[in-house]
Amino acid sequence: MITKTPFNNHKYNWININLEDVSELENFYEEYGIDNEVVAYSLDRNERAHLDYDQATNTFVLIFNLPNQEKIDNHYETIPMTFIIKDMQLITVTNTKNQYVVQKMKNYLAKNESTTIFKFLFGCLFTITDLFFPYIEEMNSERKIINDKLKEKTTKQNLLSLSDLETGIVYFVSASKQNLVLLEQVKTHIIYRTLDINEKEQYEDALIEARQLVEMTQLSSQILQQLSGTYNNILNNNLNDTMKILTVLSILLTVPTIITGFFGMNMPLPLEHNTLGWIIAIFISVILWFGLSAILRKILN
């Protein structure tokens, strides 16, 4: 499905292509004289955020990361979206997973109908960056809930939930860093020199927002890592305490075993004909047991 939206008194056009079929996309690019390499960029869901500029055809291609609305394996991931500027047209390539951004772009264009093509682009990148923040806040809320549960009881399920949060924030940290690097590259690119004051202001706004996103995702990631490390230390400490208790019990249980084994040998022994011999053997075991307990308590404390 292809939609064409003119703006700024029909001076510019925004063309959105929502296609999953490679052949149809290639036909569209051939019609507009766009390099076939861009086709691969547009359809590769693992493509990293970057920009390309073909000076011969005056084609500016930008791949930008945005959050995937659906959770995958109980965690959020990110997906790329392609923006192409050629002549007086902004072309966006979307699919079922990032199609929700189109409505955000329509809302922006409705409020800024007289915008230029690059101001529209940077405004959309600013809007996309803003889309990350609600998901990060959701992750932070989930982290607090999981932390409270872990304080009550460190269960496997709660630890797995914490691991899912860590996985999701890793995707967001990586995506936000890539987006920031991309925007910083724009400033060093030849295309930046052609921008007017308003376009550069919109670009700076998008750049500032991208930096804030990187800081926020890194902070959330560091908190999760510290939280995970804390509970890992707690589990190791609990394991050490358990092993210590089992070791002490095994040592203490050897005392009556040694005493009873001694008096159970098939040879002449002290107290062999004494009717109270078994009581004396038990008494000896108890005395040695308490003595050894006191020694272990001092050593372990």
From TrEMBL:
It is found in: Membrane. GO terms for cellular component: membrane. One of its GO terms (molecular function) is metal ion transmembrane transporter activity. The chain crosses the membrane at residues 117-136, 245-264, 276-296. Keywords: Membrane, Transmembrane, Transmembrane helix. It is a multi-pass membrane protein. Pfam families: CorA. Gene3D superfamilies: CorA soluble domain-like, Magnesium transport protein CorA, transmembrane region. It comes from the Bacteria. CDD domains: EcCorA_ZntB-like_u2. Its main location: membrane. This is Magnesium transporter CorA family protein. It comes from Carnobacterium divergens. The lineage of its organism: Bacteria, Bacillati, Bacillota, Bacilli, Lactobacillales.
